[in-house]
Design a protein that fits this description.
The structure is a homodimer of 121-residue chains.
Chain A lengths: L2 H9 L7 H31 L4 H7 L4 H8 L7 H10 L4 H9 L5 H13 L1
Helix pairs in contact in A: 2-5, 2-6, 3-4
Chain A binds a DNA duplex (30 and 30 nucleotides) through helix 3 and helix 4.
DNA sequence: TAACCATATGTCATATTCGACATATGTCAA
DNA sequence: TTGACATATGTCGAATATGACATATGGTTA
C-alpha cells in the first residue's frame, strides 16, 4: 500500500499500525467484500433458475422484497449470514456455499487474452 | 430430529429451549450453526498454531480478548463475518475458508468403523 | 397511452452484534 | 500460599443489520 494512502487514512482519524499490519487487514476486508459479491451473484442466479420472484424468496427466508434486492446487489447493509442463509434456504448445499466462498473470480477478459496469446504463439 | 443432534449443538454452546422449539430449527439454520462451529474451531486452531494469545489476535482484528474468546466458543453473539474476518486476518486463504464452510464434519469413529468393515469384508 | 409486475432505492424503528470492561476460572511457577 | 498470565462469561452503551414500508425505475402487455 502506498504511504500516501496511509497518511490520508491517519489524517482521517484511522489508527494504522505498521504498514504490513495494515496490508493484512486491507486484504482481509477486500476478500470479505469479494466473497459477499460472489454470494450475492449466486443468490440471484439460483433464484432466477428457480424462476421465483424476490417477493417469494423474501417470504421463504422471512424477509422483504427490498432486502432481497439489497442482498442481490451486495448492499453494504447485508450480512454474510443472510447471504448464506438465503442460499441454503433455496436448497444450496454446504459444499456449494463453500465453493463460492473459496473460489476467486477469474476475469473473463484476462482469460480470453491469455488464450489468444497461446494461439498466436 | 434426533436427540443426538440437539446434544451436539448444546455441547457447542447453543442453548436450546424446549424440544419442540428445537424441532422448528430449519435445516438451513442448523447448517449455519454447524458452519459457525467449524469456523470457530479453525480460529482457535490457527491461533494456537501461531502461538499467539487471544489478546494479540484481538489487537490484530481490532477487537478485545473477550470477544475473541466468544468467537472461539462460537458464542451466539458472534457473526459469520467476524469469524471469517479473523481467519483471513491470520493469513487464511479464501480457499481455506471455503473448505471449512463447505465441509461437513465426519466422525472419526464412524470413519474408522467403515474402514474396518471394508477390510473385514 | 395506461395498467401491471419485478426490481431497486431511501428511510426508519427495532433487533442484533460490536468493543470494552469487570470479573471468574484455571494453570503454572516462585 | 501468592502472583502473573490465559481464557471464559456477563453486562452495557454504541454501532450495525434487520424487516417493513413508501416510492422510483424499468420492462411488458393491453
Amino acid at each position: 500500500m502506498k504511504a500516501s494512502k496511509k497518511k490520508k487514512l491517519e489524517a482521517a482519524g484511522w489508527k494504522v499500525g505498521s504498514a504490513a499490519e495494515f496490508l493484512e487487514l486491507s486484504d482481509a476486508e477486500e476478500m470479505l467484500v469479494n466473497m459477499k459479491v460472489a454470494l450475492a451473484k449466486k443468490v440471484k442466479a439460483m433464484r432466477q433458475e428457480k424462476k421465483i420472484t424476490q417477493q417469494r424468496l423474501a417470504k421463504l427466508i422471512g424477509s422483504s422484497q427490498s432486502r432481497v434486492a439489497k442482498l442481490e446487489t451486495a448492499d453494504r447493509s447485508v450480512s454474510m449470514e443472510l447471504l448464506i442463509r438465503s442460499l441454503l434456504s433455496m436448497g444450496a448445499t454446504r459444499a456449494q456455499v463453500g465453493s463460492i466462498v473459496g473460489t476467486r473470480k477469474t476475469k473473463k477478459v484476462a482469460k480470453a487474452k491469455k488464450k489468444k496469446a497461446l494461439v498466436k504463439g
